[in-house]
Amino acid sequence: MKAKKFLEEGVIHVIFLIAIVLISIFVIVFISFQGSNNNEQVIKSKTFLPSSTPIAHYLEPSLKQSDAYTIIFVGDSMIDSLGENFDYLKQDLEDYYPRTVFGLFNYGYGATNILSLDKRLNLKTTYNGKANKAILERELDIIIIGSFGHNPLSEMPLEDGLRKQVEILDEVVLQLVIEKPNTLIIFLSEFAPSEDNYARGVVDLSSEQRSIWVRERKAYIENHIDYAKNHNIPLINVYEESMVNGDVDLDYINKDNYIHPSSTGLIFMSEAIADFLYKNAIFP
User: Fold this and answer.
1) Is 110 helix (H, G, I), strand (E, B) or coil?
2) Pair 237, 108 in one domain
């Protein structure tokens, strides 16, 4: 009887141990599954998602401490006007960071609109006889994206064009975050078109036509600004900072065409860029 009782107790003990093991395995698997889901949620929360999704805010990566940084500028002729050598900006950066080397690359192509941005990111392109490798093939720390506002999508109704602008920015920012997660994205809004003088001497416009051109270009630049603000993207706001009584300060505009920046305007824009980087402690 004792042997039988001992055997029964042993069987119960074994069953009990098996039950504990099975429960332990279940708990481990459940925790792992939950951890996997949580990790996936964390990854998603760190990834830019279009504004139609619940998560719509860009989280800035922190740049690593270094003695050299690469900054790429992309846009239309307003970015191109900063020059291939960025003479003013280089001096401003040297004043703020005398022991740091900056590689500055200009992907500003005149007379191009935002539809061309994807090509510059992904393909080799040529501008003014110079071949430039795809931006995403480069090692870069910061990409500064202009508004392309002075080259609006005029072939579309304004509402459709602004919607297309947002769609492209959704795609571009998402691609940058996925493929270049350690690269900081910054938007730049350029000088506003002059209410009374835009393109004077270059294009023969009536007052009514000029007003239409100005409103359209302002709409695209302001849409660029709103996109940055709505998605928590750092913004260098030359557009608003250069305004006087609601219009651009003409000291910043080239009087030969009333479109592009004057020398004073280039100095202002370069200082705005350098000041932004310094005051926001972009470089550790």
Assistant:
1) coil
2) yes
Give the tens place of pLDDT for each residue, 118-159. 999 999 999 999 999 999 999 999 999 999 999 999 999 999
Alpha helices in 109-202 (DSSP H): 117-122, 158-179
H/E stretch holding 8 reads helix 2-45
Q: Is residue 83 part of a domain?
A: yes
* pLDDT, tens digit, 9 for 90 and up, residues 10-41: 444 545 445 444 444 444 444 344 443 433 33
Q: How far apart are CA 265 and CA 28, in angstroms?
A: 63
Name residues whose C-beta falls within 8 Å of residue 130's C-beta, 6 or more positions apart in sequence.
none
If asked whether residues 179 and 75 sit together in one domain, one would say yes
CB 221 within 8 A of CB 239: yes
Q: What is the DSSP letter of 252?
A: G
**Cα 195 from Cα 251, distance rounded (Å):** 14
